Task: structure prediction
Amino acid sequence: MARKKDKVIDLSGRLQERQQALEHLFREDGHILRGYLFKRLRDESEVEDLVQEVFAKLARMPELETRLVKGGKNRNFIITVANNLIVDMERKRSTRCSYQAEQKHQADQLVYELSPEVEVVANQELSLVKAAIMDLKPTWRKAFAMSRFNHMSYKEISEEMGVGVKQVEKYITNALVQLRKVVGTPPQADAKGEQ
Result:
């Protein structure tokens, strides 16, 4: 029974020694660690997170007490631990960015890799729209093309065609009605208002 009690006392003593060592390190070198990390990272929140992570790693380190210089400077040791954590953090960030870039690339590929069937249907619909536009009366077609393809306002179209703004509205409305009959209702097929 005495042996078990001795082990508990020994373990308790080591934990207390470890805690004292960590507190000493924090008091003596915590500010230096913060300054060093801020020079490297330039982000206060990352610095605070990393300081906590450094001391958490030190707390988990086996036989920490034997690695520390008694009453001496342990800055190099702490900085080395911090540098290793920075390298790990940057590696994870790089891996995450690479993964995200690859996911985006794959998504983009899916968008651009149309199946032959989809491409045929799209070409047929495009041909239908082109034919429907070409079948419009010339004045309707001209007003529609200037509005939709040249992005001209109704006023600019009226000046170009030598007619009133109301007449341009009628041309475009008639063109849209005719196109709807042939093609169907496109998502934004409503006539544009005066710009």
Observations:
- The chain has two domains: 2-111, 116-183.
